[in-house]
Specification:
alpha+beta, Pdz3 Domain, 14 helices, 27 strands
């Protein structure tokens, strides 16, 4: 226990160091570009700051420059009074700009652009390192073959868009919306970020696929899936997952797979003569067969020698009894799953009496009841014509629902220390019996792969995704909004999440630097591109823009810029809360709904 705690602390320290080194380093590189260019062109330099706001610590160099780290880690700046008045962001300069010699148009353009140039050079250097070391990945990331088509999207009873369109496991996706794709990540990104709509205004995407040697064009109508309900962070999806090679881990000798002769490393290619492309598809086929014997076709060994083995599954009850409630919410109908949990939701006593009904699922943020009926909320009682009745089990809730006359009911709930009541219309409740499925006792091995991509391939992707995001933000047909933007908090969380593999850290840093380069060159006042725009306008006019106009424009955009950053950071924290809600939902499923797989123990020999 002590060792695990020490390792957890060390991992946290390592994550923080990576954030400081690579995210802080990216800001430093950007500002270093401005600094060196300004020094080379002979400009007056007052401050070199990593971060914004009040000075935390630093020193004054022999060159008179105040080198500092500032309080807010929201970027950085080099104070250059001869460029543009940035007092609103950078603070008051000691030098009077009017008393300093004027600088040329070339000086302004070179100094402004060099921050982005240094970010690109830094990203290129990291890309060369990744080219040499290769990038980690799995077949499910590098493949463009569909491995699974979902029947429904999460929280949606209607068939998934992919199911409705007729996509099948084994289909190889060649293009999305007339653009070629080289990985499953690109497929989901192009569908998710698409802004295409048909003549009726419905979301639409066109997939060119290869099926059985024939190329087909399939039109799909994506739906929005809420990845982060807490902030309305939704993205277009069609309900497909990538193909994965089914490589079997070592089965227990006493399991059905062990009895049949399956071995570690066997590659499953078909089940009852039906090709399989993912474990989810494998499970669906097995579920349809029940406890009947099935033929598994495998490839074994370095020569991929074919074998066909017969396996007889055992039936395993893999879920607990649950309840499902449905109710009206305006023009929509929602459903939620509930499960019986201990009085204290996550009690340490495994023998505690299970006597509360706890919600397991999330509602979309458009729901009137979002934030109330959420994972972890306990329904304690229900208001019936004969009085208030406590509900402890799915059976209690289903029996109570039968007594409701008009479908209108009041539920009494508790979430932590917060107690409240909610009135629902069109209310129905039913028990869901424990699910029994066939089980043969195998697990899939995820085979790691290393992918070599040239710096130009890496840059092509990074530039493409950045420009696509900017375009979709301003496209009225797009579903991409400011809510999808990542702030400094989300960047820090991402660095922490990839801290176990330095190559992933490098790749994320490349993305960050390309983003910094492109965004800073946008022609928006307060950004580098804005300085270049103002300098160009003054060059074309042949005279300086009046200081009063410049100051007004700067202050307007400073206010806009700070407001936008504040909103994005606020969303970062809300996204964090959404992550916690999702984690709680997963915890409830894992601890109270999903029952562990049976363990097959060899019989003792007599």
């Amino acid at each position: 226990m002590i060792v695990a705690s020490i390792l957890s602390v060390l991992e946290g320290i390592w994550g923080i160091l990576l954030i400081a080194l690579f995210f802080g380093g990216s800001i430093f590189v950007h500002e270093l570009g401005h600094f060196l260019a300004a020094r080379r062109r002979g400009l007056k330099i007052e401050r070199f700051s990593i971060g914004m706001g009040p000075r935390l610590f630093g020193w004054t160099g022999k060159d008179g420059v105040d080198y500092r780290v500032s309080l807010f880690p929201l970027g950085g700046y080099v104070a250059l009074p001869q460029m543009v008045d940035m007092e609103a962001i950078e603070g008051k300069n000691a030098s009077d700009p009017d008393a300093l010699p004027p600088i040329s148009y070339a000086d302004k353009m070179i100094v402004a652009v060099m921050g982005a140039v240094f970010n690109v050079l830094f990203a290129f250097a990291l890309a060369c390192v990744l080219w040499a070391t290769k990038m980690p990945g799995t077949e499910s990331v590098t493949s463009t073959t569909i491995g699974y088509v979902h029947e429904n999207l999460p929280g949606n009873d209607a068939p998934s868009p992919a199911k409705q369109a007729g996509l099948l496991p084994g289909d190889k996706v060649l293009m999305v919306d007339d653009e070629p794709v080289a990985s499953f990540g690109q497929i989901t990104e192009k569908i998710g970020m698409s802004a295409r709509r048909d003549e009726r205004g419905q979301r639409v995407a066109t997939l060119k696929i290869l099926r059985g040697g024939d190329e087909k064009s399939i039109t799909v109508h994506p739906e929005l899936y809420f990845l982060r309900p807490s902030i309305g962070y939704d993205i277009r999806t069609i309900g497909i997952q990538s193909a994965e090679k089914i490589l079997i881990d070592q089965p227990s000798p006493e399991s059905p797979a062990g009895h049949a002769g399956l071995q570690q490393g066997d590659h499953v290619v078909a089940l009852d003569n039906q090709p399989v492309f993912s474990m989810l598809q494998f499970k669906d086929i097995l579920d349809a067969r029940g406890a009947k014997p099935v033929e598994i076709r495998i490839q074994r060994g370095p020569d991929n020698t074919p074998h066909t083995l017969t396996v007889t599954p055992v039936l395993h009850t893999d879920t607990a009894e649950t309840a499902r409630i449905t109710f009206r919410d305006g023009d929509s109908t929602h459903s939620l799953k509930l499960v019986a949990t201990p009085d204290e939701l996550f009690t340490q006593d495994p023998k505690a009496e299970r006597r509360n009904l706890t919600i397991c699922d999330s509602l979309p943020p458009t729901s009137e009841f979002f934030g109330k009926l959420e994972p972890g909320t306990v329904i304690t009682s229900i208001n019936l014509p004969k009085g208030i009745l406590a509900v402890r089990t799915p059976a209690d809730l289903a029996a109570a629902a039968k007594e409701i006359q008009d479908g209108k009911v009041t539920l009494f709930c508790r979430n932590g220390n917060d107690k409240f009541s909610i009135t629902l219309s069109g209310f129905r409740a039913e028990e869901i019996a424990p699910q029994t499925t066939p089980y043969i006792g195998i697990r899939n091995i995820t085979k790691p792969e290393l992918v070599r991509k040239t710096p130009f391939e890496q840059f092509s992707y990074a530039f493409g995704i950045t420009f696509a995001t900017i375009e979709k933000l301003v496209n009225p047909s797009s579903d991409i909004t400011v809510n999808h933007l990542m702030g400094v908090v989300s960047m820090a969380k991402t660095y922490y999440s990839v801290a176990d593999d330095l190559r992933r850290v490098l790749w994320f840093t490349i993305i960050i630097n390309i983003n910094l380069a492109i965004l800073n060159l946008l022609p928006i006042p307060v950004l580098d591109g804005g300085h270049m725009l103002i300098a160009t306008i003054q060059k074309l006019l042949g005279r300086p823009i009046p200081l009063k106009i410049l100051a007004t424009v700067q202050y307007v955009f400073v206010f806009f810029f700070i407001s936008l950053m504040g909103y994005v950071i606020f969303n970062d924290f809300r996204r964090w809360g959404g992550d916690n809600t999702f984690a709680l939902q997963q915890k409830i499923y894992q601890e109270y709904i999903i029952r562990p797989a049976p363990s097959f123990v060899e019989e003792p020999k007599s």
